[in-house]
Specification:
The structure is a homodimer. The first copy, chain A, is mainly α. Chain A has one domain (5-298, 309-701). Chain A contains 19 helices and six strands. In chain A, a hairpin with a 2-residue loop joins strand 3 and strand 4. In chain A, helix 5 (171-216) runs parallel beside helix 15 and helix 9 crosses helix 12 (407-437). The first copy, chain A, is globular, with a radius of gyration of 24 Å. The two termini of chain A are 45 Å apart. At the A-B interface, helix 5, helix 11, helix 12, helix 14 and helix 15 of A face helix 5, helix 11, helix 12, helix 14 and helix 15 of B.
């Protein structure tokens, strides 16, 4: 066996982290602007850090409690006469996963709160420089997430392999089974971070807008608005830290699902039969390398260049390079003969084709998401037009755009599942998802630069810098809105593909033959599963509504009770608004999180694995749909509103900001906020987390039939 | 064999139709008011009839085309040396089903357009009299639908049995297989009527409100509004004719699904082994009798009595009586020994318990729907409160109420499926649905009186009758809103239960063993199926939006170009608005209808029955959820708006009509209109229709595996 291969992936992970450290140092070295800017940025950084600390406090209780449960469950393996409690190992893997996930979020947030003000300062010079600073900030986050994930999975795998070295034939299987603990830890933190951060950011955003923009008539990000610091903190804890933890969890789940299936394959390769297990890690490791290459291509000439183009060049290049590289990796790692997994037999080229399928599915998802949410395209224009007949038709327009936007993604996913299965069975479906997620570092860099630019604009506004600065940051921010939408499309697509792999892994471990929908109990499970994304979304949306109303009351109070705010004579009490958002989001994230974690446990232990399988199928299908629907509706409403800022033609008349049509479009934007930043993007985590919980409990519920 | 039993159900159907004829004659005999009122009512009746004729013209092409396809498919049975082409028989059953469904809608609409003006006239005397006239109108519709359904199914069954008398062992199975054609015809017409009528009524309603109420500032149903006649016509073609066809189709599908499963059961009873097949028909026949009894209990003392209570007494009585009667019917019809269906063995008492389960599920669905949509209850009050912070929070509130309202119904359904299966296997699930639907006549009477009262109010307003008349009709109308919501809850619950029976029947006929979700192709089918309710809803909502905008333009044009409308000096061109609604609804109903009909055919013939099974499961789970979500959100928004009419407390302040909060609530109501009257209630037909199409094509796709 060529043992060195096992070290390849973690080494590439370390490489990513090293590059990240350099880039991070570069960001910190940039000019942070004048004292006023630094003070404002300091408020934002402090608020963000305060939230993270409060969140970690709450989550550490959850982590310790769950870890104790895992440890208590008690599976024992005897290795070379020594007893190893694998439940203790799962417990440790779980804690490591949780800590890594939190760290991924922290890295992103730390650099984002440095990069924001430096981007503002850079925007005083040129768009090129502002893009460079903000995008480098995003890159740090991307490399941090991907590097930690590959290092964590690969490193723990090595440790666990040696730990279970005495188990013989069961060594690899046991090592991978305990590795699910890592994914469980990562995905749980992801869920809470995404939901908590999502509630925080939207409560602050909606609250700041409703009183500031609508009632007091001051611009967005005005320094007089007491909620403006909370709003900018929100970008960091929601769109940066929350998203970082989210993608860390998704990425890990996807790789792990492929490893679980790969472990079932018996091949005669040059790597001790481990090639199907190592393949996804190696491809994702290479994805980091090509993401680094891709990020180097993201640059523009001058203020008139297209930022979107620059990002596209970087993105497509890294994807293409990764696909080409996987050709060689597949060629090198996998054996030549036929490969068999359960009922499917395929060749290594089938595996490669599946990777190609995954990349194509990802690309189509991006393009479609962009179509449905970008300014100037038909769907957004239809919402713009429907804004001219009022608030209600604006809402109807957005809802129907969101619903319609599910069609092509779902057909693409269905086609992707069918064809990757055709090429390489269940392993093909899993590796397709891994291929799609391989360039997560690049995707995330593109995703994370948006909120940095958004923050930079906020600081520019609050520091009353000249308008061309704000213009430059707005340019970046607008592109960021679109990339945020496409990033969500990617995440949900990977969840859909990964879910099948996780189902299959679950069926294998739980020892059932079928998940048969026309059995009464399974259909009941399917219904209940389908309902969960609805109640989950409702709780998220309602939490934002409630927290926003608290924020509205507080802002109104400050305007009323602190004289002189409006004349810049008195400073608003920013920290009170920050505290409201912090408290509300931590309180409100509990219930949806608990539903996601506990439901599979209850259903699994009460009704057995087949009903739980039905539940998972229900969650997956309804979660994917609700995810696409909500994210795209929100994105489209947002850009419909933005269309009015530059003016837009309705019925042969130019209509601008401030018109009734624009006001109607603001309604849609506000409704869309929790859709696109709280409930919508949580769906993919919900799906994966529930599948992973099921996978972890699968051995214990294997016998139950009801 | 006690042959007479087979004639019992159709005889009860005829009984229902006879009572209907008497009630109808009574309605016609009532005073129709003065010449002005009669003229207005004439406009409404003409508009409704014109729409129905136009719709029938379009649908007859569809019916003939589909009938030709069915006839062409060509299955031949040799009976006593004579060849019988069962495909021809299916074709005829299909046409009869379509005609009966259309007739059911027509009967309802005809009496509704007579009862409306007579209710107005009665409301000049007392609330008691107005309730009597409008509710009798509703009763005519209810008895017409239920009578035709039981007569059609029972009568055709007798005819087909004698037609296939020579087939021996296959006689009953073949008779029931061709009977699916009847259900297919009924359900197709139901879908088009519901969608077409739903688009019509909401386009007119939204259009009339946006220009009339909001822009011109004239009250609802004002005679000066050019769209007001179209609006009132809409109540008849959507809420009466559309709903009648809908419930006719649902009722037939539910009974048929039970018959299909009953046919698989081999019992040694006193009725030639036919008791499990006859049971659902007999119970539904008795349901008609007890509905008649129930309708007689619906009466009030004076203007201060509660109309809701009167309806509840009638409703609960007929349900309770039917349950008691089914105890005796089960005792009498079914044999004493163990009964076996596939893997389940049960007794006749298990069957009875399942009927009880069905009734309880129905009752819980009603209560929960009422809770989520009624004025003064927490959910509607939360929307009212959220209206005080603007349009956006009103929308967020309604969306989250709608999503949350799925939880208890889904848990109830899951519990109902599990427990009725536990009591009597798949047959138990089917008979539970049949038990729930048995009092359809009563349900529909309660449902249909609402739009009649709504119309009566419209006529009172347009004829400028004294305010107490309008008050009385408003009282009836408000109750009608709640009963409309609970009726939808019933319909969707029956769809969920029936779908399992139809799955099971489909699996049997298509000759597959499993519908296994973790197979790649089946999961792909599940995704695509889950997407269909989304695109279907989007198309419906969008159609309403588009048609409403056409209406807005036309109304604005008339106000602009016809001087004197506002001073009552010139009459608006009502018929132009009627024509717009008619044209738009017929055009826009095509696409959603086609999707529902064609998708199962394409998927079935391309990928085979198991993938089609996955598709059906996806449609069912996502359709049930979207149905509950949309209907309840719409109902809650509507009543949140209505709460402002009598004034409501927000933050310790009374808030009334005309306030900003009220305006925000109107936005929600308008968004909710297509939700609750177009897309939401179509979901249950969509689910059943796609299952029935699959059932019809099942024999042809039995061999396909992909």
């Amino acid at each position: 066996m060529n043992d060195y291969v096992i070290y390849l992936a973690p080494s590439l992970g370390i490489l990513g982290l090293v590059v990240m450290a350099f880039k991070s140092a570069w960001v910190v070295k940039q000019d942070a602007g004048d004292a006023n800017m630094q003070e404002l940025a300091g408020h934002i950084a402090d608020g963000a850090m305060a939230f993270l600390k409060a969140e970690w406090k709450v989550l550490s209780i959850f982590v310790l409690f769950t870890a104790a449960l895992l440890a208590y469950s008690g599976t024992v393996h005897t290795v070379n006469g020594k007893e190893i409690h694998s439940s203790w190992v799962i417990c440790i893997a779980f804690i490591v996963g949780a800590v890594f996930s939190a760290t991924a979020g922290y890295i992103g947030m730390r650099v984002a709160t440095k990069a924001n003000v430096r981007t503002t300062q850079a925007a005083r010079t040129s768009l090129k420089q502002a893009l460079k600073v903000s995008f480098t900030g995003g890159t740090v986050m991307g490399l941090g997430v991907a590097g930690l994930a590959v290092l964590g999975l690969g490193g723990l795998f090595i440790v666990f392999l040696s730990l279970f070295a005495g188990l013989g034939a069961n060594q690899v299987r046991t090592a991978i089974e305990v590795l699910t603990g890592f994914s469980l830890g990562a995905e749980s933190i992801a869920l809470f971070s995404r939901v908590g951060g999502g509630i925080y950011t939207k409560a602050a955003d909606v609250g700041a807008d409703l009183v500031g923009k609508v009632e007091a008539g001051i611009p967005e990000d005005d320094v007089r608005n007491p909620a403006t610091i909370a709003d900018n903190v929100g970008d960091n804890v929601g769109d940066v830290a929350g998203m970082g933890a989210d993608l860390f969890g998704s990425y890990v789940a996807t790789i792990l699902a492929t490893m679980v299936l790969g472990q079932e394959i018996r091949v005669n390769d040059a790597f001790g039969g481990m090639s199907p297990i190592l393949l996804p890690m190696v491809i994702c490791g290479l994805g980091i390398v090509f993401s680094i290459v891709g990020t180097m291509l993201v640059t523009i000439k001058d203020d008139n260049s297209s930022v979107q183009n620059a990002l596209n060049v970087g993105n497509w290049s890294s994807m293409l390079l990764t696909v080409v590289a996987s050709f060689f990796v597949v060629w090198w790692l996998l054996p030549d003969g036929p490969i068999t997994l359960r009922t499917a037999t395929f060749t290594k080229w089938g595996v490669f084709y599946s990777i190609v399928v995954g990349t194509i599915v990802g690309a189509i998802m991006s393009v479609v998401t962009e179509y449905y949410t970008a300014m100037g395209k038909k769907p957004v224009l239809s919402i713009v037009r429907q804004s001219s007949t009022g608030h209600a038709t604006n809402i109807i327009g957005g809802l129907s755009v969101g619903m319609k936007s599910t069609v092509i993604p779902i057909l693409t996913l269905a086609g992707g599942i069918m064809s990757s299965f055709y090429f390489a069975g269940l392993y093909g479906v899993a590796i397709a998802a891994a291929g799609m997620m391989a360039t997560t570092a690049m995707q995330l860099a593109i995703d994370a630069f948006g909120p940095i630019a958004d923050n930079a604009g906020g600081i520019a506004e609050m520091s009353q810098l000249p308008p061309e600065v704000r213009e430059r940051t707005d340019n970046l921010d607008a592109v960021g809105n679109t990339t945020a939408a496409t990033g969500k499309g990617f995440a949900i697509a990977s969840a859909a593909l990964t879910s099948l792999a996780l189902f299959a892994a679950f069926v294998g471990i739980a020892g059932i033959e079928h998940i048969d929908i026309y059995k009464a109990n399974v259909l009941a499970g399917l219904f209940v599963g389908g309902m969960i994304p609805f109640i989950f979304s409702a709780l998220c949306i309602q939490a934002v509504g409630k927290a926003a109303m608290d924020m509205v009351q507080e802002v109104r109070r400050q305007f009323r009770e602190i004289p002189g705010i409006m004349d810049y004579k008195a400073k608003p009490e920013y920290e009170k608004c920050v505290a409201i958002s912090t408290k509300a989001s931590l309180r409100e994230m509990m219930m949806p999180g608990a539903i996601a974690l506990i439901t599979p446990v209850i259903v699994g232990f009460t009704f057995g694995p087949e009903v739980l399988g039905g539940l998972l199928a229900g969650v997956t299908v309804s979660g994917v749909l609700m995810g696409i629907f909500q994210s795209n509706a929100g994105g489209a409403w947002d850009n419909a509103k933005k269309s009015f800022e530059k003016g837009v033609m309705i019925n042969e008349e130019m209509v601008f900001k401030g018109s009734d049509s624009h006001k109607a479009s603001v309604t849609g934007d506000t409704v869309g906020d929790p859709f696109k930043d709280t409930s919508g993007p949580s769906m993919n985590i919900l799906i994966k987390l529930m599948s992973i919980v099921s996978l972890v409990i699968a051995p214990y519920i294997a016998g139950i039939v009801r």
